């Protein structure tokens, strides 16, 4: 569907229907349409990275325990690395400062009766299933991105992954996962795969400026700042406060 759209064989409305947007996604199509149109007009390839809706539904209803061995093998090939990452001190800080507060925001908005991709649930997500869904969501998107750039059609190019801010900031969403997955034995990249995170128009809430810099013990046991992102792009009229960004470890340059 995406390739046909880029080739000019589908209209905007046909793309909407072909991707089952109304069923599989909760955000307004109109917000993403200008990006799709830009890619079509400039022949920029579109790649679908989102988690399989059936897998996300399984996790939303029964947690990670609901996944079969076949599910793990297909969607989380680095199961050991996936589990090890959750024990990282920085990740635990990220969990407490980003993911868990996100759960309570979803609860306040009254949208826990939906999977993270927007499918209706019979019962609202509890904290465990919400967190499990977020982890599997990030892992599978990172895996799909790495897989694409490993393939012949993706080699030698630049891939821009557009996702929500919580998947980007403080590296433990997609960035660290992509680097880990690229380093797995048998992969074609190793250290040659370069990953950089960019936050677009972040505000004070994104940088968690009220709580100060995000810190975690380093290898030497000393507290280290977890960098907000590699780059920050902000429009002059955007609601952002530069000091809030600088405080969490983004270089002034």
UniProtKB/TrEMBL annotation:
InterPro entries: Cofac_haem-bd_dom
Family matches, as Gene3D superfamilies: 3.40.50.11550
Superkingdom field: Eukaryota
Residues of the Haem-binding uptake Tiki superfamily ChaN domain: 1-177
A Pfam family recorded for this sequence: Cofac_haem_bdg
Protein name: Haem-binding uptake Tiki superfamily ChaN domain-containing protein
Organism: Polarella glacialis
């Amino acid at each position: 569907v995406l390739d046909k759209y880029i080739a000019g064989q589908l209209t905007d409305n046909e793309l909407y229907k072909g991707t089952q947007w109304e069923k599989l996604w909760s955000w307004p199509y109109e917000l993403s349409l200008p990006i799709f149109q830009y890619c079509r007009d400039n022949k920029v390839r579109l790649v679908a990275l989102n988690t399989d809706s059936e897998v996300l539904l399984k996790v939303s209803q029964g947690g990670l325990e609901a996944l079969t061995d076949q599910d793990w093998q297909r969607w989380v090939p680095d199961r050991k690395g996936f589990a090890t990452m959750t024990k990282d001190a920085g990740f635990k800080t990220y969990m407490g400062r980003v993911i868990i507060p996100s759960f309570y925001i979803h609860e306040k908005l009254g949208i826990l009766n939906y999977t993270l991709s927007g499918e209706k649930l019979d019962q609202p997500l509890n904290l465990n299933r919400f967190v499990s869904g977020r982890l599997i969501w990030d892992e599978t998107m990172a895996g799909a991105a790495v897989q694409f750039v490993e393939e012949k059609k993706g080699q030698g190019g630049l891939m821009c992954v557009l996702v929500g801010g919580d998947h980007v900031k403080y590296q433990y969403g997609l960035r660290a996962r992509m680097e880990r997955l690229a380093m797995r034995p048998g992969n074609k990249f190793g250290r040659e795969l370069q990953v950089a995170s960019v936050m677009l128009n972040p505000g004070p809430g994104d940088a968690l400026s009220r709580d100060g810099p995000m810190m975690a013990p380093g290898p030497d046991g000393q507290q280290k700042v977890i960098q907000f992102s590699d780059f920050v792009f902000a429009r002059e009229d955007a609601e952002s406060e530069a000091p809030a960004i600088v405080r969490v470890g983004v270089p002034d340059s």
